[in-house]
Amino acid sequence: MITVLVANLLCQYDELNIESEVLSIMETIIYAHPWSGSFNNAELKAITTKLAAAKTAYQIIDLYHDGFRPAYTAEELKNFSHGVALDPLVKQYQAQLRASSKLTFIFPIWWSNAPAIIKGFIDKVMLPGFAYHEDTNWHGHLTWIQQVAIFTTSEVSQSQLENNYGNPIQNWLINTLLRDLGIPAQQVTWSHFGEINSSTPAQRQAYLEQLTTR
Questions:
Q1: What is the pLDDT, as a whole number, of residue 24?
Q2: What is the sign of the dihedral through the CA atoms of 154, 59, 89 and 139?
Q3: Which residues pair with 27 in a beta bridge?
Q4: What sequence ranges are listed for the domain Flavodoxin-like fold (predicted)?
Q5: What is the enclosing helix (H) or strand (E) of 59?
Q6: How far apart are CA 176 and CA 142, in angstroms?
Q7: Which domains does the chain have, with CATH numbers?
Q8: Closest by alpha carbon to 57, among 1, 3, 94?
Q9: Which residue from 6, 70, 138, 189 puts its CA 20 to 30 A from 44's CA?
Q10: Which long-range contacts link 11-19 to residues 24+ away (Cβ below 8 Å)?
Q11: Cα dihedral sign for 26, 27, 32, 34?
């Protein structure tokens, strides 16, 4: 069962059953910020307002709100090579990803990279058999994902991230991780709102307005 939001209709996770093939367009937003007053939360609201106005089906994976545990237990790790998920949230997230044609990530940059909860989401959800398999070569399985959009914020500019901090989003997330999942870089866009601590309300508002016309 999958939480589906279509226009202004919000259906709770246990109220709607839907098969992945029913909707040809489903945007899944992977959101990671614990504070409702954050700029990331404002981005989430701007993007979902746009999707609702366009009557585009979407669903939200809110990692902090869900209480997702990013660290493996010993028992979970023992089952990793078999592709077995023990965490009910992992099974739910895999079902949501199966129903998706587009993924949108929204998270802050902390200590020059994505928050640990994003890394834990990748570690625990992208299991062998579901996300990839290996024989003589590596095969990414998420080839049904047609587009990925990444929205990040931090106190440093995008050029600083790229030139002084190892370019983590491009090098780790886009060129390595998503590629290994079967999603080529040309299907991925990245938008960064940097120097957020010194930005003005007008600059933040202008950026949010751009999101509603993306």
A1: 72
A2: negative
A3: 58, 102
A4: 29-211
A5: strand 58-62
A6: 14
A7: 5-211 (3.40.50.360)
A8: 3
A9: 70
A10: 13/92, 18/99, 19/99
A11: negative
Other Cβ atoms less than 10 A from the Cβ of 30: the count is 23
Q: Give residue 213's pLDDT.
A: 76
- pLDDT reported for residue 62: 98
Task: Compute the distance between CA of residue 8 and CA of residue 3 in angstroms, rounded to an integer.
Answer: 13
| Interior angle at CA 141, CA 90 and CA 78, nearest 5 | 45
As a whole number of angstroms, the distance between CA 107 and CA 96 comes to 19
Do 55 and 122 form a contact (C-beta atoms < 8 A)?
Answer: no
Instruction: Name the phi and psi angles at 92, rounded to 5.
Output: -65, -45
**Model pLDDT, residue 214:** 67
The closest of 127, 120, 138 to 94, measured between CA atoms, is 127
Q: pLDDT below 70 — which residues of the chain? A: 1-23, 214
How are beta strands 27-31 and 58-62 bridged, if at all?
parallel
- Residue 129, both tokens: 């058999």
